[in-house]
Amino acid sequence: MACFAVTPVAHMKDTLRITEIFFSLQGEARTAGLPTVFVRLTGCPLRCQYCDTAYAFSGGELLSLETILERVASYRPRYICVTGGEPLAQPNCIPLLEKLCDAGYEVSLETSGALDVSAVDPRVSKVVDLKTPGSAEMGRNRYENIEHLQPHDQVKFVICSREDYDWSVSKVIQYGLAERVDEVLFSPSHGQVSGRQLAEWVIADNLPVRMQLQLHKILWNDEPGH
């Protein structure tokens, strides 16, 4: 009879599957350009057509929360970004965020917006995507999350076309996002809309949004670990 090693449940409850932990510059959102430790969790229930982190869909290393905190601390950071994949797909993401805040870091969470954010520690700055029609995952948007947004949170739209842009503008207006959060972010989908084109649309409409380019793509051409 085959014998399989089983990790005790008591041990599993304090672990997360991690693709990578690395120190780099934040490439987007409010803290773009600031030295930041990234904790990339493994797994994602979405398959956006423009995804640039498909390598985080599977694999990874099972680490205890204590080990994750030790690795983060070794960089002596000020800013931490918990990302994925979709970090909230792992329930232990919630206690990790709490422990990072307790340690005194400024913590952000990058989430697809498809999963419930209501349990996220209020000290965390949530960067919540609203998936556009061009993402191929618009149907996964959890609009209930908008009620849980705080002023220090951020809402991001990745724009793949003029249709996406018009749709995003309509959502900014419909949900009063510019009044609800400090930062509404419009990003061009790499290879689909140029930064210049999106900038011209934003200027023409005088939108209350921050148009952003992904700094890590400019500096490192999207290499893993940056």
From TrEMBL:
GO molecular function: 4 iron, 4 sulfur cluster binding; carbon-nitrogen lyase activity; magnesium ion binding; S-adenosyl-L-methionine binding
Catalytic activity: 6-carboxy-5,6,7,8-tetrahydropterin + H(+) = 7-carboxy-7-carbaguanine + NH4(+)
Keywords from the named record: 4Fe-4S, Iron, Iron-sulfur, Lyase, Magnesium, Metal-binding, Queuosine biosynthesis, S-adenosyl-L-methionine
Binding site for [4Fe-4S] cluster: C44, C48, C51
EC number: 4.3.99.3
Top-level enzyme category: lyase
Residues that hold substrate according to the record: L25, Q26, G27, R40, T83
Sequence positions that bind Mg(2+): T53
Superkingdom field: Bacteria
Co-factor: note: Binds 1 [4Fe-4S] cluster. The cluster is coordinated with 3 cysteines and an exchangeable S-adenosyl-L-methionine. Binds 1 S-adenosyl-L-methionine per subunit.
UniProt pathway annotation: Purine metabolism; 7-cyano-7-deazaguanine biosynthesis
Cofactor requirements of the protein: [4Fe-4S] cluster; S-adenosyl-L-methionine; Mg(2+)
Domain Radical SAM core: 31-222
GO biological process terms, semicolon-separated: tRNA queuosine(34) biosynthetic process
Residues that bind S-adenosyl-L-methionine: Y50, C51, D52, G85
Role according to the record: Catalyzes the complex heterocyclic radical-mediated conversion of 6-carboxy-5,6,7,8-tetrahydropterin (CPH4) to 7-carboxy-7-deazaguanine (CDG), a step common to the biosynthetic pathways of all 7-deazapurine-containing compounds.
Oligomeric form and interacting partners: Homodimer.
HAMAP family referenced in this protein's UniProt entry, alphabetically: QueE
Protein family per UniProt: Belongs to the radical SAM superfamily. 7-carboxy-7-deazaguanine synthase family.
Protein name: 7-carboxy-7-deazaguanine synthase
